[in-house]
Specification:
CATH architecture: 3-Layer(aba) Sandwich
Structural class: alpha+beta
Number of strands: 8
Radius of gyration: 19 Å
Largest sheet: 8 strands, mixed
Distance between the termini: 52 Å
Order of helices and strands: HHEEEEHEHEHEEHHH
Low-confidence stretches: 1-12
Strand order of the largest sheet: 4-3-2-1-5-8-7-6
CATH class: Alpha Beta
């Protein structure tokens, strides 16, 4: 019987290079090095979100905590399309709303949501929220994702529903209520609004948003086709421990990083 073997890897993508990308990342040598790493991945996240169609007018924001000053975070400027955001466009904001780096306004709802999250969750390095189509559609159901696929199990017992919808999140108390609803979970469905994900790395937070929107899409399709057959709780819980780790989220982002930087290297400017 003939074995099936994968094609040889291109010379520039050696086995050693692939292993380096998928190996645990060593601690940065300085705050400056870590800051650049986070900002580059944040800019890449916006470019990827544009490719996935997660841009919607002025809505949508992703933040990453500054490594040197934990009460500050980097965010996208208002009215700059995700597909055009570069590292140099990112703005540094304090939890109090003072813009320290950058000369553009920022999304007020974005500030309200992210400031509350970063204050409430010191473990959260990054948070992502956009008005993605499938995320919005699913949020209108007011229910959690069901464990109907291996991928959706990543969120089993690890996401919340934030309700009711009370308008654009502009009040500090509303941001605090959202953070309380999220608790220690990695994601939330904001009823009649969209999706929110967080992570201990920008890579994980970005990947969880991409895959959560995909899980919402899959469930909407399955529900339209007929009755659902969810995975049994014990199996869903086991699968969550296998596919829902933040380390797994970090690694899942790596191929996307490689691809978007190759396609759009100007994001690093």
């Amino acid at each position: 019987m003939n074995a099936i073997t994968p094609p040889a890897a291109p010379a520039q993508d050696s086995a050693q290079a692939r292993e380096r990308r998928l190996a645990p990342r060593p601690p940065a040598a300085s705050f400056e090095e870590e800051r650049l790493h986070r900002k580059q991945r944040l800019a890449a996240t916006f470019r990827l979100f544009a490719r996935y169609g997660f841009d919607q007018g002025l809505a949508g924001h992703v933040t990453v905590r500054d490594p040197e000053f934990p009460d500050r975070y980097w965010i996208n400027p208002l009215a700059v399309h995700f597909s055009q955001i570069r590292v140099s466009d990112l703005q540094l904001v304090t939890h109090g709303g003072t813009i320290l780096v950058g000369d553009r306004p920022i999304n007020t709802a974005g500030f309200t949501i992210h400031s509350a999250l970063h204050r409430a969750r010191p473990d959260v390095i990054a948070a992502a929220h956009t008005h993605s189509t499938y995320g919005k559609a699913f949020s209108a159901l007011g229910t959690e994702l069901l464990p109907i696929t291996q991928d959706s199990c990543a969120f089993y017992e690890d996401h919340a529903v934030f309700d009711p919808f009370s308008g654009v999140v502009l009040d500090d108390s509303e941001g605090e209520r959202l953070a309380a609803a999220l608790g220690q979970r990695k994601a939330a469905i904001l009823q009649n609004h969209g999706l929110l994900t967080v992570g201990p790395t920008i890579e994980a937070a970005a990947w969880w948003f991409i895959t959560m929107d995909n899980a919402a899409h899959a469930q909407l399709l399955a529900q339209a086709a007929g009755p659902l057959k969810p995975i049994a709780p014990d199996v869903a819980r086991l699968t969550a421990s296998q596919v829902g780790t933040h380390q797994g989220g970090y690694f899942s982002f790596q191929p996307l990083w490689d691809w978007i930087v190759a396609q759009e290297p100007d994001l690093l400017d």
